[in-house]
Fold this sequence. Notes:
With 368 residues, this protein is an alpha/beta fold.
Amino acid sequence: MRDMQIYLDNNATTPLRKAAMTEMLAAMGPPANPSSVHSFGRNARLLVESARESVAMLAGCRPANVVFTSGGTESNNLVLAQYDHVITSTIEHDSVRHAHNRCQMIAVDEHGVIDLDQLAAKLSMIDDAVKPNTIISVMAANNETGVLQPIDQIAEMARSSNLAFHSDMVQVFGKSHLDFTSSEISYASFSAHKIGGPAGVGALLFRPGCRLASMLRGGGQEQGRRSGTENLIGIAGFGAAAAEAFGDIKHYDKMAAWRNDFEARMLDERHGITVFGKSAPRLGNTSCIAATGKAAEAMVIAFDLAGVAISAGSACSSGKVKSSHVLEAMGAGERAGEAIRISGGWATVKSDFETLADVFLQLYKQPA
Ligand code: PLP
């Protein structure tokens, strides 16, 4: 056992930034209902609106386009609930895949990129009468492989077909400069705990004119779009994390080089290594990698004992590992059971990837 644990599972969640913790501690205690008219309420309202500005800055949109929710899952569910039909991809997060019972799936290729021809064919078959109640939902980056989807092209296809387009942007948020305002995207989902904020808070961005009615019936908070007294402590932490993440984006450019060095070393020094999505554009922080004959679940435990926290496939809420629908959709077959996911975050340093490589080579002892 090592004394210091290296954390490389940031696509699951990230450590809380100090600035977020400070803001959250400051928000704890006073009575703080942002709808109250007295000074306590007004202070709470100021905090919410200042957090909204920070989130909007990181997303490249106007604060008025940001609705606070309880996280990525709720944002995805909220937007899809506005429509009767959903066209989506086979690699979406479960909070999109299972959010609607009328989902039509578009396949991805072996690199994990959505098949635009299949999407175009599907769009050409949609009846005009159904279009106002149909939405396309495709994630910007996959949480297991880091593969980026051509969302600008999809947005353009949606626009020219008169369809709304939603993108789950949970994994790209804070890792690249976003410009929601000048994009053609109708809605985007974000989550605080992937950028160094707390879990249980997120946002849904919507373009003016796009429908957005609250799923929850109640007090009509967030301009009637999300009822329920605001989670002030969470929102304060989200705002602080977003403000800091805005200055931190270049960290992920450097990380891409550390990740690439790690993968190159594995491929050079060992037989039977596969990096999923390697030929596609990818997030710089993610590596989904398999070594022949090594079951992912056992390797995660071995890595953990060696002081490196990573994950396998997609861990479901029970903590068990289920087979990855993403890798299956990419045609990985049995190799999916050998895939481990490494993902850096705001607190990751170069030596984390170097240590990861050393531990990996130790655990996969067979020479090249
Ligand atoms: N979408 C993607 C791509 C994710 O990776 C996650 C979290 O794992 C979610 C949505 C859900 O976000 P949250 O945990 O805030 O509900």
